[in-house]
Design brief:
- It is extended and about 105 Å long.
- α11 runs antiparallel to α21.
- Helix content is 60%, strand content 10%.
- The strands form 4 sheets. Strands 1, 2, 6, 7 and 8 form a 5-stranded antiparallel sheet that branches. Strands 3-5-4 form a 3-stranded antiparallel sheet. Strands 9-10 form a two-stranded antiparallel ribbon.
- The protein starts with a strand and ends in an 18-residue tail after the last helix.
- It is α+β, with helices and mostly antiparallel strands and 596 residues long.
C-alpha cells in the first residue's frame, strides 16, 4: 500500500540552512524536494568522485584478498582504477597476439638477420601456403622450393629467387616480421604483467572498507548539497524556504525534533497535486515483489499499489511457465545456496521455487516425467493432480485461460474501485457498466456451466446485467456531456473492448505454451539420455552427462521465459485493464545512509 505523506514547508535563516539540513539528514525521515542529478560545479565534482569510487569498489568486490597487507595510499580509488585500466589494456592485446602466434607458427623459428644476408647475396624469399592435396610435385623441380611445415591440411613453403622475372601460380603471402618465439615471449610478458596487476589489486583489497566509507560520505555530501541548492531564497536572500515530505507515521517524532530548532515550519496533509514521493508499505511476502513494481514505475499518490496483485499473479504465472516440480526444487536449492550472491533476491528465488514445486506437482511433472505413470505414488495423491484433459482439451491450457480471465476481471474490479474512489460513483458509471457486463457475465456464465443456477434464472440475470451495463456504457458514461456524444463514445469503447479483450485473454495461452515447450524439450533430453544408456554399463556416463547438461540448459531457458512473459502479462494486460499508470516518484529521504 502507498504510505500516507505529510507535506512540510521549512522557513529559516539562510545562514542556518546547511546546519538544519544536516540535522534532517541525521534523522533520515524527510524527502526534501531536490534534483537527482548534478546541477552546478560542486555537485558535478562530487558526482564525478562518487562514480570513481563506485567503479573502484565494484572492481575490489571481485578480487580475492592477498595475504600481504597493502601499504597506506593517498588515493586508493585512483590506484585501483589505474591497475584495472592497465589490466584491461593488456588483456585487450592478448587476442591479437594469439592470432599473430597462430599465423607465425607455421613458419617456424627463424632470424630476420638471415633474410638480410640472403638479400645481400641477391636472393629473395617468397612465402606461400597451399592445400596439401593441391601441392604439385613439379614445383620442386621448377623452383627452389622448401617446405617449412604442414598445419590443418595446408602446406607452408618458401621459394628462393634471384631474378625479378619471377612468376608463381599462387598468391604470395607477406613475409612474417618476426618468428613465433618472439610472439610467445610477448604473450608471456603480457600475462606476467596482468598477473602482477592482479597481485596489486589483491593487495588493495584490504582498503575496500575505506573506499566504501568514502563513497558513503561523498554521496551524503552530494545529497546534502542538492538539497541545499533546492531551497528558495526570499527576503533578499536572508531567508531560505524548503519543501519536503515525510511519512505520516513519523509525524510525532519529526515534530519533536523541529520544535527544538529555530525554524518555522508548516505541516499539512499531502495532496495529489503536491506530487508527494511514494513509499510502499507491504508485508514481508509482498515486499519481495516491490522490485518488479519499480521496474514499471511506482503508483501515483492517488493510485493503488499493484505489488499485492503482482506478488500473487507473477508467482502463479512463473510457476505455470516452469510447470516442473524438479525445476522448482532446483530453484529452492539455488536460492538458498547462493544467498550471499543473490542478496535481497534470494527469498524471491526461493519463493518462486516453492510455487513452481507446488504447480509442478499439480501438473504431475518431475524433470519432464509424468508422475501419473509412477506406480509408487498412491492413487489418492494422484487424484489431487490436475487431470490431463478438461472438457476434451488439455488441462493446463484450460487452466491458463481460466486464470487469465480471472486476472483481467480482477483488474477491471480494481479499476472500478479506484475510479469510484477518486472520481466518485456518479462519474464512474461507464466503468461500472463495463465491469458489470464483463465480470458479471463471467460469474453468471461460470455458475450456469456448473449448473448452480438454472437457465431461467440465468436468462433474467443476463437481461438485467445487459440493461444496467448498457445504461452505464452508452448513456451515463459522462453526466456532463451531450447524451448523443455519450452514445458515440460508448460505441467506440465497445469496438475497442471487443477487439482488445479477446486478444488479452488469448495472451494467457503463453503460460501453457511456455510450460509445454519446456516439458517437451526436457522429454527430448530424457529420451536421448535413455538411448545413450542402452543396456547400462558404461552407458551410464553419457546418460548422466546428457541429462544434467540438457536439463540445466532447459532450466535456464525456462527461467528466462518464466520471468519475461509473466511480467508482460502483469505490465500490459493487468495494468491496461486496471488503468494503472505508475508515474509516481520514489521516496528518497535526506539521510546519512546512502544504501536507501
Amino acid at each position: 500500500m502507498v504510505t500516507e505523506m505529510t507535506k512540510y514547508g521549512f522557513i529559516l535563516l539562510s545562514g542556518d540552512a546547511e546546519v538544519f539540513l544536516k540535522k534532517l539528514q541525521s534523522v533520515g525521515m524527510v524527502d526534501i524536494t531536490r534534483s537527482t542529478k548534478p546541477i552546478d560545479e560542486p555537485s558535478e565534482k562530487l558526482s564525478y568522485r562518487a562514480n570513481i569510487l563506485r567503479k573502484a569498489l565494484s572492481a575490489l568486490k571481485t578480487v580475492t584478498p592477498s595475504e600481504k597487507a597493502g601499504e597506506k595510499i593517498t588515493d586508493v580509488a585512483a590506484e585501483v582504477l589505474s591497475a584495472v585500466s592497465q589490466k584491461e589494456a593488456l588483456q585487450a592485446r592478448l587476442p591479437q597476439l594469439q592470432k599473430d602466434l597462430e599465423e607465425r607458427k607455421p613458419w617456424g623459428h627463424f632470424s630476420k638477420e638471415s633474410f638480410a644476408t640472403l638479400a645481400e647475396r641477391g636472393l629473395k624469399l617468397h612465402f606461400y601456403k597451399a592445400k596439401t592435396s593441391a601441392m604439385q610435385p613439379e614445383w620442386k623441380e621448377q623452383y627452389a622450393l622448401s617446405e617449412i611445415s604442414s598445419f590443418d591440411g595446408y602446406t607452408y613453403f618458401v621459394i628462393v629467387n634471384d631474378s625479378d622475372d619471377y612468376e608463381f601460380p599462387l598468391k604470395e603471402l607477406p613475409a612474417p616480421d618476426c618468428d613465433f618465439v618472439a610472439v610467445e615471449e610477448e604473450i608471456n610478458k603480457v600475462k606476467a604483467d596482468v598477473e602482477k596487476l592482479d597481485h596489486r589489486l589483491a593487495e588493495l583489497k584490504c582498503h575496500e572498507a575505506m573506499v566504501q566509507k568514502e563513497l558513503d560520505k561523498t554521496l551524503s555530501r552530494l545529497d546534502l548539497h542538492l538539497a541545499d541548492a533546492a531551497g528558495t531564497k526570499a527576503a533578499e536572500n536572508y531567508l531560505t524556504v524548503f519543501e519536503g515530505f515525510a511519512p505520516k507515521e513519523n509525524e510525532k517524532a519529526l515534530k519533536e525534533m523541529l520544535d527544538n530548532e529555530s525554524v518555522l515550519y508548516l505541516a499539512d496533509k499531502a495532496k495529489v497535486d503536491d506530487n508527494p514521493p511514494i513509499k510502499l508499505k507491504n508485508n514481508k511476502f509482498v515486499s519481495m515483489f516491490e522490485v518488479l513494481t519499480d521496474m514499471y514505475g511506482r503508483p501515483k499518490y492517488d493510485e493503488f499499489d499493484p505489488t499485492l496483485w503482482i506478488s500473487i499473479f507473477f508467482m502463479l504465472f512463473f510457476a505455470f511457465c516452469m510447470g516442473d516440480m524438479g525445476y522448482g526444487l532446483l530453484l529452492i536449492v539455488v536460492g538458498l545456496a547462493l544467498k550471499k550472491m543473490l542478496g535481497k533476491l534470494s527469498p524471491l528465488v526461493v519463493t518462486l521455487g516453492v510455487a513452481t514445486t507446488v504447480i509442478g506437482f499439480l501438473f504431475h511433472t518431475f524433470f519432464s516425467m509424468d508422475l501419473l505413470t509412477w506406480k509408487v505414488i498412491p492413487d489418492a495423491v494422484k487424484k489431487i493432480m490436475l487431470p490431463s484433459q478438461i472438457a476434451g482439451f488439455d488441462g493446463t491450457m484450460v487452466l491458463a485461460i481460466i486464470v487469465g480471465i480471472v486476472h483481467i476481471c480482477l483488474a477491471m474490479i480494481v479499476k472500478t474501485y479506484q475510479s469510484t474512489k477518486t472520481k466518485g460513483f456518479a462519474n464512474s458509471l461507464g466503468t461500472w457498466g463495463w465491469t458489470l457486463l464483463i465480470v458479471g457475465g463471467v460469474i453468471v456464465g461460470g455458475l450456469a456451466l456448473m449448473k448452480v443456477i438454472d437457465s431461467n434464472v440465468t436468462k433474467w440475470v443476463v437481461i438485467v446485467l445487459g440493461v444496467l451495463s448498457a445504461l452505464g456504457i452508452f448513456f451515463l458514461n459522462n453526466l456532463h456531456r451531450n447524451p448523443l456524444l455519450n452514445v458515440g463514445s460508448g460505441l467506440w469503447d465497445t469496438y475497442n473492448t471487443a477487439t482488445g479483450l479477446l486478444g488479452d485473454v488469448l495472451s494467457y495461452l503463453r503460460l501453457y505454451a511456455l510450460g509445454l515447450a519446456g516439458a517437451k524439450l526436457g522429454e527430448a533430453f530424457n529420451a536421448i539420455g535413455v538411448q545413450a544408456l542402452g543396456d547400462g554399463g558404461f552407458g551410464w556416463i553419457p546418460f548422466i552427462l546428457i541429462v544434467i547438461v540438457g536439463h540445466t540448459l532447459n532450466l535456464a531457458m525456462c527461467v528466462l521465459g518464466a520471468f519475461v512473459h509473466p511480467l508482460r502479462l502483469n505490465f500490459l494486460e493487468f495494468f491496461k485493464n486496471s488503468g494503472y499508470e505508475g508515474s509516481g516518484r520514489s521516496y528518497n529521504p535526506l539521510t546519512e545512509n546512502t544504501n536507501k
